[in-house]
TrEMBL record:
It comes from Paenibacillus silvestris. GO terms for cellular component: cell envelope. Belongs to the bacterial solute-binding protein 1 family. It is found in: Cell envelope. The keyword Transport applies. Residues 1-31 form the signal peptide. Pfam families: SBP_bac_1. This is Extracellular solute-binding protein. It comes from the Bacteria. PROSITE patterns: PROKAR_LIPOPROTEIN. Keywords: Signal, Transport. InterPro entries: Bact_solute-bd_prot1, SBP.
Amino acid sequence: MKSISVSFTVLLAGGLFLSACSSQQSAPADAAGTTAPAVSGTETITLKFMSNGSTFTNTEFKNQIQIPVQKKFPNIKIERIEPPTTTTLQELFSSGTIPDIVFASNYNPLKKVQAIEDLRPWIQKYNFDESRIKPYLMGYVKAAADNGEIYALPYNSNQHILYYNKDVFDKFGIAYPSDEQMTWEQTFELARKLTRVENGVNYIGLDVEGLTGFTKSLALPIIDSKTGKSLLTSPEWLRVFNATKETFEIPDFLPKDKTKYSWGRDVFMKDRTMAMRPAWLANMVGPLEELREQGIESNWDIAPVPNFEDKLGKTREAQVHSVILTKQSKHKDEAFQVMSYLLSDESQRNIARNGRVPAIINKELEKEYGAEVGVLKGKKIQNIFVGEPLQDHTIHEFEGDVTKFVTQANVDLANGMDVNTAIRKASEAIDKEVERLSKNQ
């Protein structure tokens, strides 16, 4: 049997890319629509795997990728490499260190360096059954394509929940959030009762983290994909600005630092003085588990993520954590086999048990969610699955370049600027930046 050494390179903060060697054909697809991991020969092959930007802790890497893949492919060697976060994708790409598989949710950085392999030929070759994948995840992948390409396979659905600290609620004698989905207005009312300064300690009732927190409830893009113009003047964005302003006006909420408008997850996880924080599962569950392993535990639980009253039944847009085959890979057959295995029932059951919502359609896996994650023991797991996630908005190629103007709009609102002025200022800045970037392409 050919010895396959797979080096899974995970970059958590920014940048991309590593290297690869040669390949042979792989075995045909199995009944589940994934490829059987059978290859022949004696040559050692190294596949490079990397994650860009998404939270993926060492514990998650070990339990979801390292152990199961080595078990399935006995000759695989898996190692995690973390280059300096200051290294850019272009720098890594120019150095010749190319990954075979990339774990990401935003495909634009890879598209810019022409590094994404269209998966359609590989799906056909190995009879991969894409209908097994949840439609709102596969829909995002297909919407990102220019001409019908399939840029990635969804690995997991990164969904939102409302984390709440039971001790803060108990301290002030306030009932916990409902197991039924609340409106944002109901959540604001709770936040007003819980936000205060007591004995010099800031207790934060709710931190939505500004405008982008509310845009996730409506799956709003910043830039119109057809016109390239700012969408901040739309009625939906006005709704988001008004909701953000309302949270900023809760007495004692805003930090004393006038450049800040939110408190961040450490106030919930470590300081334990935040009552409610809506956030992605991957953003908090892994880090909370690592804290638990260090002996630092919080008395928290899960409620359904709130939404606007007319949107109840929907939650927030789900971030699509995907696996991408690079165009430069010298081992596309073997790499696609590994990607296929990660979408098998066996692998998806494992990631569910380790705290990620599976990408495949299988209600039974929801019942096993978090079974291997100590920090989720006794939590209201069923509340994760209340409501239907929204398909994530398609990310414009310049969205990452203009989010700084949305961030500044948060600061402006926090410092008393009225909503209409903040919208106009941010929209004009976005339009100018998109025009500049378009000319420089």
